[in-house]
Amino acid sequence: MTTDLISSLETIVGSRFVSGAAEERYLYSMDQGTMPPSEPDAVVLPATTDQVRQIVLLANERKVPVVPMGAGLVLSGLTRALRGGIIVDMKRMNRIIEVNPASRYAVVEGGASQGMLKAYLQKHHPELKHSMPDAPPVATVAGNVCIHGSGHLSVLGGSHSDMLTGMEVVLPSGEIVRTGSCGVSGQWFSRSPLPDLSGLFLGWAGTTGIITRLGIKLFPNYRHNDVLIFVAEDADLMPEMISRLTSVQAAEDMTPWMTPKPDWARGFLHINIAYGAHTKKELTFKRNLLQSSVREYIDRKIAGFLPLPPPQKGRFLKIPSPDLARFADLRRGGGFEYVGAIMAIEHFPKAYRAGLAIAEKHGVAYSLGARIIGAGHCMMFFFAYAFNRADPEDVKRASDALEATNTAALEIGGIPWKAELPAQKQIIEKMDPDTFGLMGRIRSVLDPNHIMNPGNWEK
Amino acid sequence: MQPIQYNPDLCIHCETVDCLMKCQYISFTGTEEAKTEKLKINGGEESRVLRECLTCYACQEYCPFDNNPFYLLVERQEALGILPAPRPVVEEQLRMMAPKGRITPQAVSGVVVDMCAFPMLTGCIRGKLFEGATTIVGTDIFCNIMWLHFAKNSTIRERVPRIIDNIMHFYLKDSNIRELICFHDECYGTYTSVADAYGIDVPFTPVHQFDYISGRLNELQDRIKPLNVKIAYQRPCSNRLVPHTDKALDEIFEKIGAERVPRTYDRETALCCGGVPRAHQRDELADELVEKNIDDMIRTGATYCVFNCPFCMATLAHEVAERGLMPILVSDLVQIALGE
Fold this sequence. Notes:
The complex is a heterodimer. Chain A is α+β, with helices and mostly antiparallel strands. Chain A has helices spanning 2-13, 22-27, 49-62, 114-124, 141-146, 154-157, 238-247, 280-293, 295-299, 310-313, 323-328, 348-362, 392-412, 421-430, 433-446; strands at 18-19, 42-44, 66-69, 86-89, 96-100, 105-109, 128-129, 164-170, 176-180, 210-217, 219-220, 224-232, 253-258, 269-277, 303-305, 334-343, 365-373, 378-388, 415-416. In chain A, 49% of the residues are buried. In chain B, the strands form 2 sheets. Chain B has a 4-stranded parallel sheet. Chain B has a 4-stranded parallel sheet with strand order 6-5-7-8, sandwiched between helices. The longest helix of chain B has 20 residues, at 153-172. The termini of chain B are far apart. The interface between A and B is medium-sized, with 25 and 25 residues.
């Protein structure tokens, strides 16, 4: 069966781009997180939308699972082949198809990486940029949009799925659909004013289709950029501080962080605030707006901005930030996972305290933080745990801490983001049954043979 | 630990109240008001000066009686709980700069240069100018004078004796070396002026970088290729504690053929670089100081903006370079003259 499957896949994409070799299946069986490995039968790398379509048709015919994958960096094991089948690695479909400077959008293929798009824009459109997540540059644009990711322009533009302007998707049935304006006009400027079908593919963990192209919003790339670091001691004041800082709408990105290492940072709550401007005068104006928004706390001497001479600002302006990667290697051994929970800003103090309590109880190395989404509309609060993959006890500690964190996040009123399998089940448990029922009916309509990433979003 | 050395009678009978009247950042209606505020400070009472002070150290230099007005002001700020900067900003920096206890004994030889907490600058100690020198660096020997900017005399009292002990115990004592070259005049100010005013014993002889370099230039006279350039000097706050060393700096510039151009903001009227006001959350004032300093330098037609303080350089260098001046440390400028 597998030999036959591989042979059929070779017919579609050529023999160089299909593998059923044990070492390939092993590499594709896991990501860097704590979820146990699960091997596919085959891995295939298509180069065109039509090849993706043919692969899906083949899988339907054979009733073989299909798992779409970008860079496989989700950390929560969403691209593991839980029931075997084919992993469709999209990395060959990595073209930047179009940049529209007037309407500020880019159209890229489903496997185009964040780093490629950044480099392309720097070279060809230096006046524009896109919102980069704090993931390695090889992470794909499509993957991050699909998981409702966020990044360095999320205060300005919301989550990355909010920045989506349209998609080309190969449905589980093999049909090719286009959501947003591109489905009507051929241009990718907006998801409105049509019925918004993009939501059928966002947050579904690859269970409803394979994205082969997408349009995303671009933003002005400023010549002058700066960062402020606000520091406070009282977690209970954080929601109001965040609210004030976002109210002036000067920042592009706002990332609170709390970490026990280095020692000097333990117990303090920081907010990195990145902003940019076309001129120095405008930059100073924005800085003054941000500072004046929290002047009351400064005057009370209970919070303030760290004095950072220009040479020290460089590391905080790097995109993606190297700090999380540094933390990820804290325990050595290549293990890193976090619970990012999307939640309301007012839950910040509870989430912070829950994170501290869980880290202490489970004895794990932790880093807590958040990324503010929109003008203080919500946040992705993260509880990150580093572990040594070569040490099973360390993996177990991190895994237990993650499970406890998912539970805590749900109890607080948040929702685990890009939830791994156990967390998906916890969410479903808490979800309105009619809503979950609708999810099931939509899947059945789109994917009658239930081939798309089975095992995910199931009871 | 003994209180700050000062004589209240000198202030009572002072006719000029230079410590406050010469202040470039706080205005007074006249000597009478300044005297009233000064006597409030001396008496441990609230004074607007305690809240408005930029902590530029300049009053230490202005006082004709060397009566330690600035150290006393900081003492009063701390006693009255008047923080120039928000508490978390100060507390976090206190932790960052605390002695970490990571120091280990090290044999030192030649001249020993104290690089304070600036490991990134140890590369400056090179060439003939510092031939055979050993550098020591790190938070375990950080001079801690910066806490004068944050109403933390208590930290100075607590940490300075410990770091002096570290310098002696881990470096100088076993190598039988008695002299310590201070690369930054904050360190020199700590081991001379602060130590004297706070009653802290210093068992080694601090030597200011300027005195060392000036002496070394005498020995390397044959190698000097005069630069024939105009330089604008950014005098740091800590030099207010040791103003006599400014003369040695003039000698250095003369020896290397650098003309220290007259600035509106140099010597006694030097203006803060703007770094500390940012820590005090007074960014708009800091912007103004940066602009005034650089405009002033540009007006002189200088080629270089010369720094002794690494913090001043970190604060101003980028803007200085953008405006067309070359930012450089004193020692690097001297090394250019030595062809190194």
